[in-house]
Specification:
5 helices; 100 residues
Length: 100
């Protein structure tokens, strides 16, 4: 899988989608996202938007988990966003990621 980016227009938050080790933990924050942490509310809208874009309908428990995750630092939120996008790509294409 080639790295790509996901941008959520409502928050203007963007994350590079690639295996974490190819970017390094700080790479999730430094390549595109140096100053992106905009607080838990923006991160909550980013995660909820990402899940909605993936076609998920969130229940109360899901929204509670999104709210909890949104309070973490941006590299953690960005890593989770990367996992969601990568899992969606595998599901859509049927092509699993390979070690590189």
């Amino acid at each position: 899988m080639k790295p790509y980016s996901y941008r959520h227009e409502a928050t203007a938050l963007q994350v590079r989608i690639a295996p974490v080790e190819t970017l390094g933990f700080d790479g999730l924050n430094s390549l595109l996202n140096v100053a992106q942490h905009r607080g838990a509310e923006a991160q909550r809208r980013f995660l909820a938007g990402l899940l909605a874009d993936a076609g998920l309908c969130l229940g109360d428990g899901d929204r509670g988990a999104v709210n909890w995750l949104a309070g973490w630092e941006w590299p953690t939120v960005a890593a989770i966003a990367s996992w969601i996008c990568r899992a969606q790509e595998v599901a859509l294409t049927g092509e699993k990621e390979t070690d590189q």
